[in-house]
Amino acid sequence: MESFDTYQTPLSSRYASKEMAHLFSPANRFHTWRKLWLNLAIAEKELGLPVSDEAIEQMKANLHLDAKQFEIAAVEEKKRRHDVMAHVHTFGQVAPAAAGIIHLGATSCYVTDNADLIFLREALTLLLQKLAIVIDRFAAFAEQYRDLPTLGFTHFQPAQLTTVGKRATLWLQELLWDLRNIKRARDDLGFRGVKGTTGTQASFLALFDGDHDKVEELDRRVTTLSGFTYAYPVTSQTYSRKIDVDVLAPLASFGATAHKLATDLRLLANLKEVEEPFESTQIGSSAMAYKRNPMRSERICSLARHLMILQQNALNTASVQWFERTLDDSANRRITLPEAFLTADIVLTTLQNVSEGLVVYPKVIARRISQELPFMATENIIMAIVKAGGDRQEAHEKIRVLSHEAAHQVKQLGLENDLIERVKNDPYFDPIKGQLDALLDPKSFIGRAPEQVDRFLAEWVRPALADAELQSALGKASKAELNV
Known about the structure:
Elements: H1 2-5, H2 10-15, H3 18-23, H4 26-46, H5 53-60, H6 67-80, H7 83-94, H8 108-144, E1 149-154, E2 157-163, H9 164-188, H10 202-207, H11 212-225, H12 242-271, E3 274-275, H13 295-319, H14 330-355, E4 359-360, H15 362-376, H16 378-387, H17 392-411, H18 419-425, H19 436-439, H20 449-465, H21 468-476
Antiparallel strand pairs: 1-2, 3-4
EC number: 4.3.2.2
GO biological process, one term: 'de novo' AMP biosynthetic process
Family: Belongs to the lyase 1 family. Adenylosuccinate lyase subfamily.
């Protein structure tokens, strides 16, 4: 019952995947700190500092904390008001041979900042894999409906026809840009490394008796042991908080993509043309039993808005860092960074769930086309009359009058669009009446939409997903299930 008596963030308790929630968990955070202390000790030993084999072995054997150690750390932190020193003390209790060398020469940001960079990189990797799956699913949808005509909208007013598949490529193109941006952010991440209290490495220079080469090698070695290819060449006590800005920017941009996509689906649901999945036992409204609310797409929009604003926190934090550091970044980043990734993770899972169960209603789509297409076909009808020997201006005036009469039927009387019947009943159009069916074929109004879909999938989507890392994720992917 205790978990029900205190506030829990819905991001972890209600929505997020186990993988992302674990990544930012206390257990993983403090486990990572211990690995970083181990890497520092190994590198210091290799470079000649007095670190015993026993110390290294005891540290390796106690990288994971048990419940008792969490309790000890909590007591220590309350006493010392310093989370890092509380965990240095706790680690030393289970690795007594290392107690004297844990954190040797380091500042708190050695573990806190380097661990954050590890989490950011791993979290970006998780998002990349999930985004690849979403792209794959929407690509299949675009291919399936590549040539199904549908009414296009500009200003949410009827416009020329497009296809259901072509519209999906507009979503896909933005998702591909998000894939590119997130990958760039991940691959660009460096390591803070071993830089000391103000970034000067003075403590390590003292440890190595003024040997600059050993200090530089220590930085390189710890960076390599921690799985990074490079460390930032200069830092203050922290890595620059502009790195957080660079990481959250593509997540915020993805939030805009997801919001736009989900909004389109909500509008399509209102039009009854395309709907998100709706389970047999799902309830759309507590009062109106007939309703099929697009709750998944609404959730995407809701969370995407939250995701889009979190970069503002990172921008504000980066702008107010004083000289070599100030602690007013700490509490903010503890909230902002995990929330950004948990939110993006949830949005991706929901998008995948939606993409795997979209329902298209071709007859509804065709009916809406039939209501609007006669007006759109008027130019084709005029051209056909001219080709048959008629006068363009006279044909234009005939169509104009009939169009207004048909519009009156639709707007004032609530009847169907009868423009084509009016054309058929007017002797003026006798020369082309045999062509009317062809002139009104929706597929003659979709231009190159099917071919654009084919080319886009072949030249942009499939190459983007051909990366071995993404192919591995696609191979392991299963159908997305929502927790709630």
